Amino acid sequence: MTPEAPSYDDVPRGIEKHGVDTIPDADRTGRPRDIVGILLGSNMCLGVVIFGWLPASFGLEFWPSVTSMIAGTLLGTLLVAPLSLVSMRTGTNLSTSSGGTFGVRGRLIGSVIGLLLSLGYAALTVWTGGAAVVGPLSRLLGLPDGGLSYSAVYALLGVLSVVIAIYGYRLLTSMSKWVALGTLVLMAAGIVGYAGQFTTGPVVSGGYALGDFWTTWALSTVAAGLSGPMAFITLLGDYSRYVSPKRHSSRRVFAATVVGMVFGLLIPQLFGTFTAFAARAAEDYVGPLVAAAPVWFLVPLLLNGVFGTIGNAGILIYSMGLDLDAIVPPLSRVKATVLVSAMSMVLVYLGYFVWDAEDAVTAFVLLLTAVGAPWAVITLAGFARCRGNYDPDALQVYNRRSRGGVYWFTGGWNLRATAAWAIGSAVGLLSVDTALFRGPLIEWTRGIDLSFLLAAATALAAYLLLTIGSPQPVPAADPEIPGQAVRA
Q: Residue 13 and residue 213: Cα distance in Å, rounded?
């Protein structure tokens, strides 16, 4: 008999009490539709919209831009979405869950990657969001478009994002639904507002970025389409851990994740493509977007700059807090969240006033993705090998600052999984193409950055070879979980 779900009205409304500890089943009140809502709402921000501008900046026309993003997003979603099932089974976040494959200390690899990835994306979100707030205010009210204005806007966006992240899962879930609904209305209004300026011809002169159509289309598929889902490799478990496998099937959670990722990414990105062609945005996106906007659309654009940014940044800071909590167990989730939010805002201000950091941080994120992809694929391979059966108590050994358990392996590290990750990461870094570093293998891929695909494939092959004859710990199945594989 499937256990009855706790009443949502009985759930405490205050600050979330759980960090990376195993969430008791009584507190796992999330539903698959909550995953859809949070993936939709968290992506309705300029930091995601701007990816839709990339195909235009590569020299593609409108319809090839659209098909490249759709193809890349669908492929990336199918590769990444299964990660949500891992945390659904463990009741904790993905980096802690990866201890079942990497060892209870080896899972620190995932915690560090997740922390740094979210830090980079949070900074990029606040930077683009700040421009979407200052630009409309400058046109509407004559606000000076300078450092003082950006300082005030960054502070406002940062404080609101931190408050949301501190309150945690329930506020993020509730807010995301309203942000998704409101932003869909704003984007529909934007299509009307920019429609008179829209043309499908290329917005840049000089032809295709890589010289010919198909190579440039492939570049767009990877850079604008596939890279979107890859940003979720450490985030999905933050929300699926609240969905009980005793009340919801893995099939429904996987389907909800796919729907949330596909529509959550494609809707804002395709809006970005449409407006990029309407505003003829070639070298920059936000500036031409604001300049080409009808006066009546400046207020909706401003609202999206505020609420879209704090929704996305709040989720990223929340994830950073969980990862730091996993790295430094004595810290509570709230203290860890406050600390990482301070780190994020320092990066934002240094990037604006001291460095020309946006390109550098973008390159940093791409480098992290190249080492994160092999971690993700090995975690999924471990999930398949243990047939989705985990020992939640043994996963918490490091958090209790103790030793032992079925995931202790060698001093808390699974050396085979770690070696496979290192091999895949090396291939990924050698094939990456960024403003900071261009790997030598990029010449073999015709100038297309396939780093995370090559890294993932290499890591998976290495892991399968290195683990031949090495059994994966497979705890006994929980009889209360419908459809869970039973240990042979």
A: 53
